[in-house]
Amino acid sequence: MLRPITHRTGSRFTSLLMSCGLVTVETARFDERIRGGFFESGDAGVVVTATSCDRPLFYHECEVLAHFAQKDLVLLRFDPLEGASFDVLLEGSQAWQCNYLAWRRDADDLWLIPAHTEGPFFQLSEKGLDTFQGAPYESGYQRYAGVIRAVETPSFAGRF
What is the structure's pLDDT at 159? Predict the structure, then answer.
């Protein structure tokens, strides 16, 4: 059901999972599903998948997967020129939250923030996906400084 992913997409996917605390280095190294762009956590109640396909491709497959798993779903999309973006499908919903960016402060949890500043904010951690109405930043500068596109390197570590 899931399509193969490129090496560059896979490296971003693995980095994302490790930076959120969903997997360890050892798990990421030996889990074939992660290399294929798929991760499911029963404890966190979240499924994370990855693709290099543009929107809206891959939505149907992810909707079926989320319905079957009965969990929130985060879809990492990686474009080598634009970087990483995310689409979120909450458990029980049929409405996608599209075009989110990774955002993080140094030594803080990873957030998914709307690329166009409207919509809910999501915090992705080892505990799962939490939804917030307020932004995790206080100013436009903080918003800009914390955005992670992972174009050149596959890291999702905080920078400010």
Answer: 64
High-pLDDT (> 90) share of the chain, %: 69
Q: Model-level pTM?
A: 0.92
**What does the DSSP assignment read for the chain?**
-PPP--HHHHHHHHHHHHHTTSS-HHHHHH-HHHHTTEEEETTTTEEEEEE-PPTTTTHHHHHHHHHHHTSEEEEEEEETTTEEEEEEE-TT----EEEEEEE--TTS-EEEEETTS-S-EEEEETTEEEEESS-S-SSHHHHHHHEE--SSS-------
Task: Name every residue whose Cβ is closer than 8 Å to that of residue 30 and which is 6 or more positions away in sequence.
Answer: none
pLDDT at 3 over 90: no
**Cis ω for the linkage preceding 56 (within 30 of 0):** yes
Predicted local confidence at residue 2, as pLDDT: 63
Contacts of 25 (CB under 8 A, 6+ apart): 18
Tokens 């994370």: give the residue: 48
In the block, residue with structure tokens 């798929």:
38
**Cβ–Cβ < 8 Å for 84, 150:** yes
